[in-house]
Amino acid sequence: SDGSIRLHQMTSEYPLMQWNDSTGGQPVIALQWALTRPAVFFVLDASSNIYIWDLLENDLLPVAKQTLPSENILTMALLGEPEKTNGSLGLALAKGSGEIDIQYVKKKWALP
């Protein structure tokens, strides 16, 4: 609820890494690991901002942020086929209006 993200290992109650205030204090609505690239995850906050984290590129801050403030995004899900190496990865964004928006991620964050 405070925008903190914690990365845990299943064998420990203490986080391996913790990023406080990672969304500027906005609650985290959804967090999804990339289906095609294990070090990448996506975060959606309550203000309809999407953050892309690539832990191999930068483990302190997100590598990209997309703001969609007028969209009122309620949740997100990732689309992709991990067994295929074509680098196709998309985000399905559910809007408050009932619409679903599909956005594709740049290849550099999708390629295995």
From TrEMBL:
Gene Ontology terms: biological process: intraciliary transport
Transmembrane parts of this sequence: none
Alphabetized SUPFAM superfamilies for the sequence: WD40 repeat-like
Cited InterPro entries: DYNC2I1 (IPR042505), WD40_repeat_dom_sf (IPR036322)
Single Gene Ontology MF annotation: dynein light chain binding
Signal peptide limits: none
Any GO CC annotation of this UniProt entry: cilium
Protein name (Swiss-Prot/TrEMBL): WDR60 protein
Gene for this chain: Wdr60
